Amino acid sequence: MKRPRYLNDGSVDAPKLRVFLNLDNLVDLRRDSIWTGVAKEELLERLAADGFEGVQLTDDGPQPPGPLAYCGLGRINQPGEALPLAEKHAARGDLCLTVHVGWGIEDDDDVFRLVEAILSASERTGLPIFIETHRATITQDMWRTVQITKKFPEVLFNGDFSHYYCGQEMVYGGVEMKMEFMAPIFDRIGFMHGRIASPGHMQVPIDKTNSRPAAAVGVVDYFADFRTIWARAMRGFRNYAGPGDVLVFAPELLGGAHYYARLFPGSDGMVVEESDRYAQALLYAKIARCLFEDASSQE
What we know:
Layout: E1 7-8, E2 16-22, H1 43-49, E3 54-56, E4 69-76, H2 82-92, E5 97-101, H3 108-125, E6 129-132, H4 142-151, E7 157-159, H5 162-165, H6 175-181, H7 183-186, E8 189-194, H8 222-240, E9 245-251, E10 263-265, E11 271-273, H9 277-297
Parallel strand pairs: 2-3, 2-9, 3-4, 4-5, 5-6, 6-7, 7-8, 8-9
Antiparallel strand pairs: 1-9, 10-11
Helix pairs in contact: 2-3, 8-9
């Protein structure tokens, strides 16, 4: 099997975690967010001060000035789009690229041609490219995603597991059984989008005690499930990554305009997001670092 193209920092260090922030996490935050008042020109400095080590750029603009590393994202619908997209992001200096691929209605041959084109583009440009596990793409179904790993053992994913946990309702029928089935996916994680879902909602908050909020609906401890899912993905990375390889964990908590953040009427009758997504991102960063340290200590 050809070695997967992880993000690598050129060192001989043991595989490591780096926490980035997807910049869409900052769009349309609540008026009382702890981020409120940060000037645009101070954005990267504030993120660095808060412990983020990089950002995921969500547009095709120029490289950002400042102290933080950066990576990109994009979409590939046809095999011929893979190389031009990779070349564009490599030229900008992105460390790596995450991609939504196809629409999820392709037959197997079309899926495999897309994956083959992405792997080829990554090889030609030297840019690590991670296929995101996302609804409305070729990886929306965990069964098909596992079949991709059988055809292309060197493929790597950006694990956004909210799409499986909610979209495929992982708890229905047994979450442990489904996590075991997902082992080939966990073993091929090179990037992670931080988002927590419940069985019925794509994005739900957690509280400062590392648990579900007291007002959470339902009996499933979705946060406990996500700690297990994230830990398995991190162990998978550590099991197969080599010296200098880097796993990026990037919270990507989106606003109500994208139908992710839930909106509820406030005391003034206006709808408001149920949580401060920037405060949640800081909490996610802390949790990810703890889980990765635990995964390291278990080796």
